[in-house]
Amino acid sequence: MATSLLRIPPPQDLLRPLAVPERLLLGPGPSNVPPRILAAGGRQLLGHMHPEVLQVMDEIKAGIQYAFQTRNRLTLAISGTGHCAMEAALLNLLERGDTILVATNGIWGQRAADIARRLGANVHEVLKPPGEYFTLWDIEEGLVQHKPSVLFITHGESSTGVLQPLEGLGELCHRHGCLLLVDAVASLGGAPIFMDQQEIDVLYSGSQKVLNAPPGSALISFSEQAREKMLRRKTKPSSFYLDMGWLANYWGCDGEPRRYHHTAPINSFFSLREGLALLAELGLESSWEQHKANCVQLCQGLCNLGLELFVKEEKARLPTVTTVRVPEGYDWKEITTFLMDNHAIEIAGGLGPSAGKVLRIGLMGCNSTSVNVDRVLRALQDALGRCRRSRL
Ligand code: PMP
User: Fold this and answer.
1) What is the 82 CA–ligand 1 centroid distance (Å)?
2) Model pLDDT, residue 392
3) Does residue 28 line the site of ligand 1, with CB under 6 A?
């Protein structure tokens, strides 16, 4: 018998069936995937340049235009998660030495500033404590002082639970010769946003929150002004994979015949198409109302349990992710672990500047229901009774 050359045996864990327990995902994402979207992702593959796949891509593009409320030609899905869209936005817009102003009131501003620094941009930050939002006046001061070519701001600050008002911001930026870049990963479909009317130049979001599709694709759109800035670049973007010139062609946004760029994650696109279709069927306004109503019910219930909401002003609360202070005498990790072990419900602790300070409860897309609000409140009540007892 020939002696095997293999020195590494097949891993035992891989020889067992895949284990995926049932859980209710009420953290800040991902959220549960409904059967129709799951089924779409499980369909047989087609070639990534087959006309049927190109048709699905066109439908995704139209779905994004609806969800973003934009007529922008340069609208497409990135093959990657929300971070990938964030990188794509920044690395296509910025060249070494460009100035960007980043509005930081949580982790997403911090991350955008980090990415922009890696790109060699001249980064300035305007800061607000976690739990607060920016006024037009806060932003104008930064625009006047630093004269940036791009402003980054987060619509739904999922690390703190803050909804950033966007009214007047695009107009303000344009008056100061600056483009407006908005992260709507956690807010899209859960709170109103109007890309064209609000003069947003670059907007991106993700698949795994309100759209209820698996992580792995992200939505992005560029205004004509943003497109022009990219066309004026003196240097190529530092990433081939995320080069918007290539992606625009692959997504049929430049009027040229489509060329192979990368093998798109076709099944992710099938799922994303269905997520966007569900949103289109429900209608944006109904979706916004649903998220608002369930968030109000959740906030009321949390207060009734004696918990303190982290975001004081009601209008500044993000309808998709609610934050409460970790109650005195409790360890946040014990509470989240208790919910997972005893109720099969995921909620999350804080992130970045809110780490250790808050608990985060997400109600996104099909997970944003009155039944789920009741379920998580009952589980939290149980945790508050039992986790404290375990510490005495
Ligand atoms: N921005 C915001 C506001 C987010 O909430 C998230 C995800 N929590 C991201 C960006 C990054 O998305 P992903 O984890 O899909 O890369």
Assistant:
1) 5
2) 47
3) yes
* Chain segment 181-223, per-residue pLDDT in tens: 999 999 999 999 999 999 999 999 999 999 999 999 999 999 9
**388 is known to lie in a ligand binding site:** no
CA distance 287 to 205: 16
Assigned fold of 35-280: Aspartate Aminotransferase; domain 2 (3.40.640)
Residue pointed to by tokens 């890696």:
118
Q: Could you report the per-residue pLDDT of 96-130, keeping only the tens digit for each? A: 999 999 999 999 999 999 999 999 999 999 999 99
The CATH 3.90.1150.10 portion of the chain extends over 24-30+283-386
Domain covering 24-30+283-386, topology: Aspartate Aminotransferase, domain 1 (3.90.1150)
Every domain range in the chain assigned CATH 3.40.640.10: 35-280
Tell me the backbone φ, ψ of residue 113, rounded to 5 degrees.
-65, -40
pTM of the model: 0.97
User: What span, in angstroms and rounded, lies between the C-alpha atoms of 306 and 300?
Assistant: 10
**What is the pLDDT at residue 388?**
77
User: Residue 360: beta bridge partners?
Assistant: 323, 348
For the Cβ of 352 lying below 6 angstroms from any atom of ligand 1, the answer is no
Distance CA 322, CA 335 (A): 16
Tell me which H or E stretch contains 358: strand 358-362
Q: Is the CB of 154 under 6 A from ligand 1?
A: yes
Residues of the chain under the 50 pLDDT cut: 392
